[in-house]
Amino acid sequence: MSPRSPHLYYILPGCWELKMNNKYMRYYKNFKPPPFAPTYRPTEEEFDDPIEYVKKIKPEAEKYGVVKIKPPKSFQPPFAIRSENFTFTPRVQRLNEIDGLIRLRLLFEMEITAFWELQGFDLKPPTIDNKYIDLYKLSRSVVEKGGGEYLTQQKKWYQVGKQLGLTSHQCPRLHDIYYKWVVPFEKCLKEIEEERELNGGSETECIQNVDGRRRIVEPKSRMMAGYRNPPKGKKTKDDSVDDVVCKHCKKGDDEDRLLLCEECNAAQHTYCCNPPLTDVPETEWRCYQCIKARVKSIGENFGFHDAQQEYNLVTFAEFANSWKRDYFQKKILETTPEEVEREFWRKVADLNCDTSVKYGADLLASKVGSGFPILSGSQKAGQKRRKSDANWKKYAEHPWNLNNMPILKGSVLSHIDSGISGMMVPWVYIGMCFTTFCWHTEDHWTYSINYMHWGERKIWYGVSGAEGEKFDEVVNNLVPDLFQKHPDLLHHLTTMINPMILIENGIHVYTVHQEPGEFVITFPRAYHAGYNEGLNCAEAVNFAPPDWLRLGRLCIADYAKVHRKCVFSHDELVVRMVEKVGNMDFFMKCALYDELEKIVSKESKWLARFPKSKHRYERTKFERIYDDQRECIFCKTTLYLSALECKHARLSCLRHSDHLCEKCVGEDYYVKYRYTIDELTDMRKDVASTVEHYVKWKEKATAFLHCSDTLKPSLEDICELVNLSTVQRLPSCDLMEKLNCIIKDCKSVFDMVENLLSPLNRNKTYDFDCVMKLKEKIDKLPCPLPNNLSGFHQFFGRLVEWKNRAKNMDIVSCGEGIDYESIISELKRLIAEADFFHIVLPEVERLKQKLVVHSWLRDAYKLLRWRYSCNRKKLDGGYFPKAALEEPQKWRLKEVEKLIDDGTRLMETNGEIQDVVDEVHSCMKLGWNKEFSAEKILLNERNEGVGVERANEIWGDFEVCDWLSMEKLDELRNEIVKARNIQKLYIEGKGRSDITFSDLETYDGLCSQSFFMNHSRTHLEIIEARSALQDFMKDIESLFSDTSTNYTLYEASSFNSYFEIYHIDGSLCPSIFALRELNMKRNTQETCGCAESHPNEEVSLICCLCRGKTHGSP
């Protein structure tokens, strides 16, 4: 099967939209143009010097990558091409092959189809229950899900089936389809890749250098790079089959089943094939090695190809206009540009599209003729001859004539002595509707200029050179498989990516609509692409102002990364410029000096690694060697100043000596050099003498950039140095860009510091990463902070100290015995201090959460400590725990329930507190149980009047809930306390000598109001004592009444005990008190009823009522 066969085996009509990632499909169906790049309109005076005008607009225009220039109306160059003599062979473009995302599928389909059909298998779309299986999508999906083995082991083929729209019971059959059709093919691709990596650069044959000859530069296709497949001659088959044997089983029998490879004549039985063939295939058969070669060629030879027909301008115009009319089914002028753009992007993404267009691209003006007038001696067959016309001569010598642009005095390319196609010699482009130029940068990142002579619009898309590296990364991420096969993919000029997809991935894309008579400028490293709306003729060439030299050097390093060959040697160009330094303007001399500085530094560094004591040095005139014979064997850079050569005549640059030769050792290498370091240094000095003030300025700037930390220049010093370069009209250079970046960075950093420290900006939010990056920027700045911002260092120190303290809080453990009060105090301090920094600190939320957790734990453990201490602590023989004294306020049920609810919520993010929550919950459960028990006790009449001893026994079962305050529990507790207090008061009263009848009445009243003391033994004792005392007092009162009886004091005092009559209430009659006073003054002899004299007056009895004394013995 031909690698360009249009047959794609499983693209089903009407379902092409499903083949592209739905994420991007909308950009093709509903394309929206990017924003416009600016259009510049130079005055007649500005238009006199193209190099100066481009230099003037560059600061603004460069960020767009591509801009349009409308020349003054007076610029009307004649079209110099003779249409009928201008002949060319266009390139054929298939629209659905140019988009990188679509090409991944096309390559897969072409390669897998060739892989199976060349083995003799008829690859048909596999189905499951009449549903076609997309092998490309199947292959991608399996890779994304981890590979076939992983899906089989984990039994996850249903995930792949879901992406392919299959039901769960259909998914297992995907395994068989994948391993039958895809796995063998992917194994082949893997072998191809391994062989490519194994060979590396060693496939290059060892050749001898040839001196004295200059390589003839062949035209290189840039806009329409493609690949031509030279027909491979098949090996002649030997008619004799006697010696033909199967390379698998090594037998030559069963000749009817013996297949011969159409490429190499290798033989194999049908049943020895893997997988085996049931019959001899009707088509041509290839062995496995030849199949691998064919599959490999499909991936490598993907591009545009030449048409079979040659055209001139007249015949091509007829073809192009007719094609557009037939396609849109309307007149050319009736087709709007919007229709063309929408249809272009729709067709680009249409896998079923068979639309092909022809592009007359990269037509070398030196062969076919330029559209601009050329003076005699340079005219070609396709160009008109009008030597005597003054207007012709005017435009032939005009600086905006693209034949003159590369060799203008201000262009570096004027120092190249060979006509490089497209760079030194313009290319002509004859376009038609939908013809495309894909994303690319100009060779060596030079400027380019394109002029449209006539025709319909050309649509351009551009990306700034500043985003060139990011562009590479984005495209690499979008089509990694293509980059894996071709690291220099974007240098092939065959890959288109929808601008809207690039914009979505962060690339700034702009557009330009070029009309006839307008110029389009592209800037260094600016990626650009586009298409033509219809028949037109344009011309393009490169040019390089002095500022390009630095970018050209960077481009060589970038080319080396992807092993792309150079169009010319950058170092050789620089050295050639030294020879003509006297004819240069000041700006070009400065740029040349900068390049010589880089060259001397680079060569000194690398030559030092190959000392003369270990290697033989040999001066070589590299300019006399063909360019393709003086390339580094690894990075393909064109060598000029120095090189290494092994004994097998291989060459490499000094950087890639380890890739030079596997057979030679380092000591075998020859060091080839064009100039010594001293000679290069002398060149630099010669150029430096012509730009002395520029050199002095650079020396001062270099000193600024390499100052020690203690001697850093201030921002004002750097600004002054930059202003000096402006006053002296010095050109831009690396150092100046660094200084401008430093000024910009310093101002930006200082503004950030000021905003951070200013109290007026406390409403602004920063985060610690921002502050940390700001600190790193400050440390890297070559300028110190101004005095008014020096407080940042103290601010940062406090912030770091706060962060460390906050970090310590993260490792604080939880549990019993922790000093939660100290932790909570520290957490509160940290949270309060965070407000000082007025930045976003993620730790604050964690600290707040930790504060909530630790506050909860503190309360929970307080409860638990009290609860567990209730069983162990007693006070003065009672059941009051010590914790009760420390906790004056008991826990209420709502508080405990809230504690549990809060703990349950905290458990979601703090699992370690679950045990504590459970313990608190058990406390609450116990409390409810005791509440019910207390209620039962209080309702039980048998418990009334049981006395304090029994009450204490009852409370012994409730002391575990002494921490809890509930209605019945509190009532029981109060009754217990009341009983204890009554008992205590009564006992204390009995121990005193001054108890009164009023006290007994009080005790009686208290007992009556006490659940446990009412009618208890104590209560009855109090009642009895009170009753006896009351009777006694009545008897005494009767003694002193007006109708006194003959009772004596002895008869009146017939009480059960002395205690009962010891104290008489003051409610008796007043006469008793008068008697008391009188008797207290009398002696025993006067008051005793015996009226006898006793010698011992001290032995007497005193009446408790009247205080009368009586002899103790008769």
TrEMBL record:
SMART domains: ARID, BRIGHT, JmjC, JmjN, PHD
Keywords (A to Z) from UniProt: Chromatin regulator, Dioxygenase, Iron, Metal-binding, Nucleus, Oxidoreductase, Repeat, Zinc, Zinc-finger
GO biological process: regulation of DNA-templated transcription
Record InterPro entries: ARID_dom (IPR001606), ARID_dom_sf (IPR036431), JmjC_dom (IPR003347), JmjN (IPR003349), KDM5_C-hel (IPR048615), Lys_sp_deMease-like_dom (IPR013637), Zinc_finger_PHD-type_CS (IPR019786), Znf_C5HC2 (IPR004198)
Reactions listed under catalytic activity: N(6),N(6),N(6)-trimethyl-L-lysyl(4)-[histone H3] + 3 2-oxoglutarate + 3 O2 = L-lysyl(4)-[histone H3] + 3 formaldehyde + 3 succinate + 3 CO2
A GO-annotated cellular component: chromatin
GO molecular function, one term: DNA binding
Annotated localization: Nucleus
Pfam families: ARID, JmjC, JmjN, KDM5_C-hel, PHD, PLU-1, zf-C5HC2
Domain ARID intervals: 102-190
Record family assignment: Belongs to the JARID1 histone demethylase family.
Name of the protein described by the UniProt record: [histone H3]-trimethyl-L-lysine(4) demethylase
Organism placement in taxonomy: Eukaryota, Metazoa, Ecdysozoa, Nematoda, Chromadorea
